[in-house]
Structures are given as structure tokens and as C-alpha cells.
Amino acid sequence: MGKRDIIAGCSRGCRRWCWIAVLGCVGTLYPARGVGQGADETLWRPAASQAPQSRPATTSAQGSSPSAVFQRSIPVGTVSLPTPTHDASSERPAQPTPEADGTSVWQPPSRVAIPSSAPAFLPPATPAREDAGIWRPAPPRAAFGLPNPVAQDGARLSEKPPSGGKTDGGPLPGTSASDAKSAAPQQPGTVEPGAIPPTLPGKGAAPATIPPIPPRIPPADGPAEPATPNTVPAPLPLPRRMADEATTHSVLPPAPPELLTPAYLPVAGHTFGSPALNLSRDYPSLAELCSGWLADRLWLPWSRRAINDVDWPYAYVQNEYLLWWMSPLRIPILATTNPDPNRFGYLNEPGTVPIVGPGNLIGSTRSGFRIRAGLWDADRSCAWDGSFFFLGRQTASVIIDSQHFPLITRPVFSPNPVPNGGGVIGETGEAVAVPGILRGQLRVDASSLLWGADTNLRCCLKTTDTGQVTGLIGYRYLNLSESLEILENILVIGPGGTRLFVPDPPGTVVFVRDRFATENRFHGGQIGLTWERRWGRWTVWGRATIAFGITEQELEIYGIQTRIRPGQAPVSYPGGLLAAASNLGTFHLDRFSVVPEVTMQVGYRLTPNWQLYVGYNFLYWTNVMRPGDQIDRVVDLTQVPNAPPVPFSGQFRPRPPFRQSDLLVSGLQFGVEWRW
Asked: Which of 440, 437, 441 is nearest to 493 (CA)?
């Protein structure tokens, strides 16, 4: 046989086999296009239940073609698949089985049992529902790559599976084995749009594993469907969007009536429920009537204003009543008496007793007032501060006469020599009342007045919510005015004889006046601190200052005698007894003084603007003159008008001694403060 014969034989064989392949393909496609197109054909449904059976491998006799394999009819039924598990061996593609004529028949994987009457990829049977979708195989046009309409949830497909096709789980036409292996199962209950449904395998096509269709997932808010044994577990329902928290919790449930509390009463801790309810609007309570303007100004317990609404004031005014104690005004011995009528009442005589002095003529208790005011700048950093206090004038009087004491003497010490003898006279006195000779009256008057003022510049050193410390520097003024007067009113009723020297006839009236007056004026600069601490409505306030300056001292000594003899005009003489010619006049001195002052007080705030307080004040003033200390008991009788004739002692006495003393002032104050 030559080459031409061989080539001709091969050509004829190739043409024959090509015609056979073409006819096989036409035979395969033609039944698919002619099946399932009728409207009266019954829709294919899975059987109610059917046990899975092993499908034996089928082979054809001699002369069988691939079309014979794919044209087997598919009985109606269902297959229950085992629960899918991850197994590496289960994912390898199924191997084709050789037929008798040399062709290969595709077999499913070894782990899936395929019954003879149902395809392996069908899902388990579930009760039919009106809204359940019916699975239908793709029409043959899927083999040509045409898109297949996707059924939505609850829709029914119009196509039926081909009668002559073999749906035993082969790979998709036109799909490679690698594509089938890499294709992942889709989310249960969903079908991806545009996906190509599985088709029957063809000769030489790589088989692929068709994923099972899971059962339908009921809606999240619907009743749960009964679980089917040996089925894939249903996934959890899809999460639902929670309601908005603000919408859910914006309105709280009302509290029980017994837990409701009136709005004006304090509530301990946290409460719940709706706001307090007014049971009656026609008859409001006292708290409601007084919860506005009146409560805010009276600072009632249910007032809306807080204690610290008026924190540190812009201005303030304090008014205080002062109940202070001051160093008393002291006097020397001004009058004496003796129960023996034959005595003279001199201090060196037996039985002589003082009846006026020595001691306190004006007591220590004083009353007065003080006003303090201040004005802060806008920043509450600096303020002007000023005060004025006044202790009312205190007076005292002592009156004695011959009705009470028949013998009254004003004792003095005379340095004059004794006439016609040696030595000095010594203790002597001026007679005011002598039985049978003089009838008289002695009166001692005293007065005392203290007042002062200061002005300061205050600067805030530290301020907190409950406390404040400020420093101040300023000017201080104090004034102390006191006086002491001794008055005699004598009537001559008889001659003196050898007992008493009386230069005037009976019926003569004699007036004698001695006056000692002092005034102390302090001028100085002061520095100090103020401190305030608050606990709620209670306040503790303190102030400490010290002033240094000069005390201007003024002493006035005045004396006069007036004699009115019967039938004559009054005659006056300069000088009395203790205020004689040698010490009459006005004297001025300057002394350095120190004035420290400390004030402590405790207050209670009735309102943020009004406060009542009580405090204690201490003030000390050095180097002051008091009138009782300026009396000189040593008297040269030659300086006294109408005195008995005696030699001059050589001393001009009395004279102003300018004795210095210290003044202590302390006591309580009761005040009210208004701040805004």
C-alpha cells in the first residue's frame, strides 16, 4: 500500500469521525431544545422523601454513542445529602469511568452516595410553601454561555429540566476542572446575579462538584421552621438595627406616687421617675407663693439662691454697737472728814478718813457705736476701707455737804515754813464745812470721751471660695478728751476765832473752782492684716493692725475764787486751791505712741447680703494724759488767794506734773453687715 492509499484512508476516517461527532452533538442538543417548552407540561419537583441509593455504573453495548448516555431520563425524586464537612479528599474532582466502547462515564465523588433515581446535588425535601422557590435546572442555552434568569426569593421558574439530559453532578459545559474546584459555595439563600447554572457534562469535559442548595432561611421575625435531620444547620438570623438610644430612653417611666417628692424639698441621693406633681393649682402652697422674689431676698430654705451668690462683695457697710471697757479715770484724795468735831480733818490726824478719792471716779464700762465701710475695685484686688467709732461721753459726779458730814476738809501738803517756828506746815487743808463756823458743799465732776477713725488701702493677698486674706496700710486718728472739776460752795455762819482763820464776816458766800482738762490726739500710720473664713452661713473674721505716731497732749488747768460779802459786789480771784497761780494755764506736749488693735468676730448670714455678728475688740494706746494724774497736792499757800499769811517756801507749787499713763480699751461689739 502506497503513501497515497494511506493518506486517502486517513482522510476518509477523519471525515467519518467528524460526521459522527457532528451528528452526536446534534442529537444531544436537539432533544434539549425540544423538551420543557410546552406550557402544559408538568413542572418538575423533588419527591417528598426517598432514601439515597447507590447508582450503579451504566455502560452501553457496542455502537453506543455519547448521546445515548446523556439522553437517559431523570426520574422525579429527592436525595438527602450528608452534612458537608471540610475534607481535603472530598474536594478532588470525580474521575470518569471507562465504558465498553472506550468512552468515559463521569462518576460522582466517593463520599457522595448517588441514588439511581435522583441526582446527587438535589437538596432534601421540605414542605411546599406558597412563597417557596422551586428549583429548576438551567435551560440548555446555558451551555452556550447565555445568562440565565435568576429566581428571587419566593418566585417560580418557568423552565423544566431536559428529559434526555443526565444530571448526575458533572461539570458545567465550557467550564474547566480548575474553575469548578475553585468555585466556593455561595451564601445560603442567595444566588449571585449573572452566574451560569450547572449543566450536564459532556464527553471529555472535566467533572465538577455541584454545591448543594441549603434549605430556605425563615425571616428573622417569623416562626422558626422545624429542623430536618441530617441537614445543614441553619445560620443565625441576620442582625437587626437597634432602635435609637435617645428615642428609647428619652422618656422615663413614671415613678410610683408614693416615691414622688415635692420639688422644693431636698432629695437625698438620686431619684427616678417623672418630676414632682402639684396636686392642686387652685390652692398653691406657701413654698410656691414664696419661691420667687420674696424667697430670694429673705433667703428662705427653699430659695433658689445659693449661699455664695454674693461671693466677695463689691461694697459693704457695717454698723456695730460697742460695749467696751476702758481704763477708768482715777483721782487722788480730794476730801476728808473726821468724826471728832474738835479735829480738823487733816490726813495726819487720828480718825481722819477720805470721803472723795482716791480711786476711780468714772467706771470702765463704756457704750458707743462704730461704722465701717469699704469699696472694692472691679477686680476685687484693692479696696478703700474706713471706720469711725465713738464712745459716748461718760460723766460722774460726787456731791457732799455739811448735812452728811459736819466736817469736810480738802487736804493738801504745804511746804511753807511754820510762822514763828521751825519746820514746815506739812499736811493741812482748806475747810469746807466746820460745825458752828462754816456750812458748805463739795462737788466733784468728771467727764470722759473717746473716739477715733481710720482710713486704709486694702489689697487682696489671697482669695479662695471660702477664705480671704488682705493687707492694709493707712492712717489712724484717736482722740481722748477728759476733765475733772472740784467745786466749793461755802457760807460763813460764824467767826473762826482761834480755831480757824476766816477773813470774811458771817453771811459771806465763797465759790472756789479747780478744773483740770486733758486732750490727747493721736496721729499715725498703721499697717495690718484682715482674715475671713466661711463655713456655709457662718463667718469668722479677724483684723489686726498696729499704728505708730505722735500723741499731741494738751493740759488745761483753771482755777478761780469768787467772794460775795454782804452788801458788796462779787470779787473774783485767779486760782483756786489745787489750781493756783503757779500752775494755771494751758500746756502742750508731744509724745511718741503705739496703738495696736485686734478684732475678732463671728457672724451668721441671714441672706447673702445681710449678716449678724458678734465680736471682741482690743485696743491699747500708750502715753496719754489723764486729768486725775495732773493734780499736785503740794501747794505753796502763798499761791492760793485769801490764804493765811505764811512765808514763801521757795517752791512754785502746785505745778503741772505731766504724768503719762496707758489707755486700754476692750470689749464686745454686736453688729450687722450689709454687703452687695
From this structure: 437
CA triple 605-606-611, angle to 5 deg = 50
Q: Of residues 279 and 621, which shows the higher confidence score? A: 621
The sign of the dihedral angle between the CA atoms of 608, 610, 612, 616 is positive
At 571 the three-state DSSP class reads: strand
Please tell me the distance from the alpha carbon of residue 540 to that of residue 535, in angstroms, as a whole number.
8
Backbone angles phi, psi at 22, to 5 degrees: -65, -45
Rounded Cα distance between 80 and 124, Å, is 5
| Secondary structure in 3-state letters for 532-555 | EEEECCEEEEEEEEEEEEEEEEEE
Q: What burial letters (b/e) apply to 146-162, b meaning 16+ CB within 10 Å? A: eebeeeeeeeebebbbb
- The answer to whether residues 182 and 206 touch, using CB atoms and an 8 Å cutoff, is no
CB 419 within 8 A of CB 648: no
Residue pair 412/332 in contact by the 8 Å Cβ criterion: no
Burial class (CB within 10 angstroms; exposed 0-12, middle 13-18, buried 19+) of 595: buried
Q: What is the DSSP letter of 18?
A: H
Helical spans, DSSP H, in 551-653: none
Burial class (CB in 10 A: 0-12, 13-18, 19+), 260: middle
Three-point CA angle 590, 591, 597, nearest 5°: 125
Centre a 10 Å sphere on the Cβ of residue 230 and count the other Cβ atoms it contains. 10
What pLDDT score does 571 carry? 94
pLDDT band for position 417 (50/70/90)? very high
User: What pLDDT shows up at residue 20?
Assistant: 77
Cell of residue 345, nine digits: 480733818
- Find out whether the peptide bond into 358 is cis, omega within 30 degrees of 0: yes
Here the cell at position 168 is: 448526575
Which runs of E-coded beta strand occur in 606-660?
Answer: 610-624
- Report the pLDDT averaged over residues 224-241: 59
CB-count burial class (<10 Å; 0-12, 13-18, 19+) for 40: exposed
* 536 within 8 A of 299, measured Cβ to Cβ: no
Contact call for residues 523 and 591 (beta carbons, < 8 A):
no
| CA distance linking residue 440 with residue 510, whole number of Å | 9
> What would the pLDDT profile of 156-206 be if each residue is shown by its tens digit?
444 444 444 444 444 444 444 444 444 444 444 444 444 444 444 444 444
CA distance 124 to 77: 10
CB 108 within 8 A of CB 168: yes
| DSSP 8-state class, residue 281 | S
Q: Sign of torsion, CA 117 123 124 129?
A: negative
521-541: b (≥16 Cβ within 10 Å) or e: bbebebebebbbebeeeebbb
- Checking if the pLDDT of 577 tops 70, the result is yes
Q: What is the pLDDT of residues 69-98, one digit of tens each?
A: 334 444 444 444 444 444 444 444 444 444
pTM above 0.85, yes or no: no
Q: How far apart are CA 7 and CA 461, in angstroms?
A: 125
Can you tell me the distance from the alpha carbon of 159 to that of 615, in angstroms, rounded to the nearest whole number?
109
Q: Output b/e per residue, 476-501; b: 16+ Cβ within 10 A.
A: bbbebbbbbbbbbbbebbeebeeeee
Percent of the chain with pLDDT strictly greater than 90? 45
pLDDT of 296: 52
Of 70-79, 560-569, 629-638, give the lowest mean pLDDT range.
70-79
Query: Cα separation of 579 and 587, whole Å?
Result: 14
Instruction: Tell me how crowded residue 142 is: count the other CB atoms within 10 A of its CB.
Output: 19
